[in-house]
Amino acid sequence: MDWTAIALSVRLAALVSAILLVVGLPIAYWLTFSSSRWRFVCESIVALPLVLPPTVLGFYVLLALGSRSPIGRAWTALTGRGLAFSFEALVIASILYSLPFAVQPIAAAFAQIDRTLLEASATLGAGRLQTFARVVMPLSIEGLLAGVVLTFAHTIGEFGVVLMVGGNLPGVTRTVSISIYDDVQSFDFASAHETALLLLVVSFAALAVVYGLMRKPWAVAPLS
Amino acid sequence: MTLAVRARKRLSRHFSLDVAFDVDSGVTIVFGESGSGKTTVLRCVAGLTEPDDGRIAIGDRVLYDAAGGVAVAPAERRVGFVFQHLALFPHLTASRNIAYGLSRLSGEERQARTSAIAASFHIAHLLDRRPAEISGGERQRVGLARALVTDPAILLLDEPLSALDRATQSRIIADLREWNDAHRIPILYVTHSQREAFALGERVLLLREGAIVGDGSPDAVLEAPSHEGVARLAGFENLLDAEVVDRRPDSGVMVARLAGTDVELETPLASAAAGARVRIAVRAGDILVAAERPRGLSARNIIAGRIAALTRQGPTVRLHVDVGGVPIEAHVTPASSELLGLHPSTDVWLVIKTHSCHPVSAV
Lengths: 224, 363
Hints:
The structure holds 2 protein chains of 2 kinds.
Chain A: H1 3-33, H2 39-51, H3 54-65, H4 70-79, H5 87-111, H6 115-123, H7 128-139, H8 141-157, H9 160-166, H10 176-185, H11 189-213
Helix pairs in contact in A: 1-5, 1-8, 2-5, 3-5, 3-9, 5-8, 5-9, 6-7, 8-11, 10-11
Chain B: E1 3-10, E2 16-23, E3 26-31, H1 38-46, E4 53-58, E5 61-65, E6 70-71, E7 79-82, H2 94-99, H3 107-120, H4 136-148, E8 154-158, H5 166-183, E9 186-191, H6 194-200, E10 203-208, E11 211-216, H7 218-223, H8 228-233, E12 238-248, E13 253-258, E14 264-268, E15 277-282, E16 288-290, E17 301-313, E18 316-323, E19 326-332, H9 334-340, E20 347-352, E21 358-360
Parallel strand pairs in B: 3-9, 3-10, 7-8, 8-9
Antiparallel strand pairs in B: 1-2, 1-4, 4-5, 5-6, 10-11, 12-13, 12-15, 13-14, 15-21, 16-20, 17-18, 17-20, 18-19
């Protein structure tokens, strides 16, 4: 088994999950509670990675991070290294690619919250931030967990985007799925089998956690 | 302290709210059918709905002023709001729900105030439970305590007792009255229950299609209804079509003939002219039933009829009496029903005092 690739994938997925939790919260909040007429545009952009071929996304990210792009040049000026085909590039691409997997469960959890609870909070003197921290967050904790777990699992398993943006550098950009692909290419089926099975089990466990959490232990019984 | 409200709000193509009223300390009932705009009035005062125009102030503290561009955020208004479905926070215990609005106080003071209000609303024993773990009446008390513990400048209650049984309602009303006597702030209490209106209200604002059409004591507004819709709401079981046949201003009465019959009813004088069609509202409980034609009574209306149907409902026997083709409902107790030997097709006399007949305009 390619432990270097597994360690790399876990590091990547953990980092992306953490960043997307922070980035996804305000996006999900805005998508749920904004009355802007342009909300549908934002919704569409967030959902785009669900339907876009990974190669297309990877291609555009590669262009955006390449040595001729402003971002790529700024990165090189700052760090002395190229951004494309680096671990950092993988992180950026994965954030974009996994965005809907973080935002959608969180937004769905926000949408389930009874709006009068937010109004009640306001009449009790709580501002928006306080209401968010004391009512919205605790009541959507399952959605937040679901978002993190799905992001993690999805990032672990991505292939196309990684190949486009990161290439195949052992210890830097060679993730689990690419390692499996390499094994198969070199007819090392036994090794491919081991890694593939591990990925399967991890994915199943992640989904089991998500669906196991999809219940509300403190649901209010109807007024009798 | 006076709450002064002037608000206009267009809610749909067919419905606009347009109200102006001042209320002083004490309970003011906002009464009306569903869809009459009662809740919208409360939401405008609390800042949850922004009016299109108007001005809302508590004393000299302006909460909203369209002309001056003032719209204080709900969190800054110091308005207590008890929602129809309570909106208790499901993830918090009763004590944390109550203490929710006290986050600016020290932990010690928060604790003290929570305990005090819990004691006065008789919920001290369930402070550690979540809303899902307590009964409807208890939730209601938690909702009231949560709004009142913040020491609001005014209190808004949106049909807070409608989901409860009568015994629980009465007990909570007693607690609320006590609190009101001690604190004397303006309280707007939305309901469509006349029982609650009479039990709590010092004044009733009657709302109809977004406008205030009645303002006065519960007696004046609800006991002598001027509109048919109000009469139905206020629990008048009988709304009888009639035609004014005679007016006697000297004795303050008029005579109306029930449509399709030659039965005449004497009613208090109303503005309707002779020949005009009116409706007469009569409570079923205001009608006396006699098995024989009574004599020597002061009541002016003694009319013959025949029982068409008779149903018992708890402590009330509902008689459906056929009076020349017009159905009239009268209520008696099971004991009187038995004593009089009332059965379907028994002939009876209905006795109705002049002042139990309320002519209403059929709006």
